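Z., the sequence and structure:
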Amino acid sequence: MRLSFFMPEPITARSATFCLLLLSSITTSGAAVASDSAVDMRSISLQQAVIKTIEHNPNLRAFDFQLQAQQGRVQQAGLAPSPELTFELENVLGTGNNQGLDSAQATLSIGWVLERGVRQHTIDAARAGASLIEVEADIQQLDAAAETARLYLFSLAHQAREVNIDKTIQLAEETVQSVRKRVKAGKTPKAELSRAQAELARRKLEREDIEHELLSANRRLAAQWGETTPTFSRVEGDITQLPQVASFETLKSQLPQNPEFTRLVSDQLLKKAQLQLAQARDKPSWRVNAGIRHSNEGDDQSLVAGFSIPFGKNTRNPGRIAAARANLVKTSHDEQAVRIRIETALYVMVEELQHSLHVIEAVRGEIIPPLEQALSETRRAYRLGRYSYLELRSVQAELLDAQNTLVEASIDAHRNIIEIERLTGVRMAQPKRSNP
C-alpha cells in the first residue's frame, strides 16, 4: 500500500518557529514507554521541552541584544546632520581704514548639508540589517528546537531499549526456572543451567548500561533550557508510532519555506540596500548657508547666502560600489548552491525514511509474529524434552534481535523525520496509528 502525506502545514515566522518541532509522530503513550512501576515518575512532553528551550536556552538570549543594537543603528541612521553655525569677523586690526574695529564686518550664518538621499538609504540598510538579524534569530530558535527534538528522541530511544531489555530479562528468568526444573528432574545437564544463569546476568548488565545512558541523555536534554539537574525522570511518547510519508515531490514543493531561503532573501535585501547606499554616497554633498552681516561702517545689516559644490571626478566611491555589486550578485549564486544542497539532502533523507518504514513494516508484520509463535512452540517442546537448550536459546535470540531491530528502525525513522521537518520548514501530518 502506498503511503502519502496530508498536505503539510506551513510554519509562520518568529513567534511560531518552535511549533515546527512539535512532532505529531511522537505522541504520548504511557503503556509503550514505561512499566507500571514508572507511572508515578515525573515526565515531560516534547512540546514542553521545546517551549522551555525557546524561553530559556542561554544561546538564544544573545540575539535579543544584537537586535537591540541594530535598532539603535536604525535610530541613529534616521538622524539628520546637525546644522553648522558660523561666525566671521572681517576688516579688523588691519591698516589704514581697517585699523581697530571701525570698519569691522561681522557675519553670522547657518549652514546645512544637502544629503541628496543618503540618509534614507542609510536607514534602509540599517533596517535590512535588523531584518537579517531577526531571520538569524528565527533560524537559531529553529536549530535549538530541532536539537531539543533530537535529544528528546535519544531519551525516548533509551526508554524503548529499556522496555525491550526488561522483556529480555523476564524471558531469561523464565528460562532459568525451566532449565532448573529439568536439571532437578535429571533430564538436562547442569551446564545448561549455568549457561542460562550467565545469560541472565549478561542481560542485567545490559540494562544497567541503558539506565546510565538514559540518565546522561536526560541531562543533555535538560541542558537545552539551562538546567544542570533534570526535573523529569522520563519523556513521553511511543517510539514505534510513525506518521504517513509524503512523496519526494510533495516535500520538494515545500523547500521554499526552508529558513535558509528566508535568510538568503533577507541577505539579498541587505546587499541591495548597501549597493544603493554606496551609489548615493557617490554623489558629492552640497552645502548651503544663509545668515546676516553687520558692518560697523555705517551700522548696516544685510543678508548673505551661498553654497558649495565639490568638483573633480564624477565617481568618488568606485571601490565600495564594485564591492557592493559583487556581494549582491553573490547572493544569487548562493541561492542556487543552497537549493541544490538542500534538495539533494532531502532526497537522501526521504529514501532513508522510506527504507526504515519498510523495515518496520516487515519486522512488525512478517518477522516478529512467526518468531513469537516459534518461541511458544519451542518452549513447550523444551519442557517436554523434545528440544535442547541450544535450540530454545536460538529462537529466543532471534526474537530479541527482531524486537531490537524494530526499535532501532523506529529511531532511525524519527531521526529522519526531524531532519525532514527542519529542512522543509513544515510540520509532519498526523501520525498513522501503529497496529495493535
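The longest strand covers residues 105-114. The first helix runs from residue 30 to 33.

Let me know what you think.
H.
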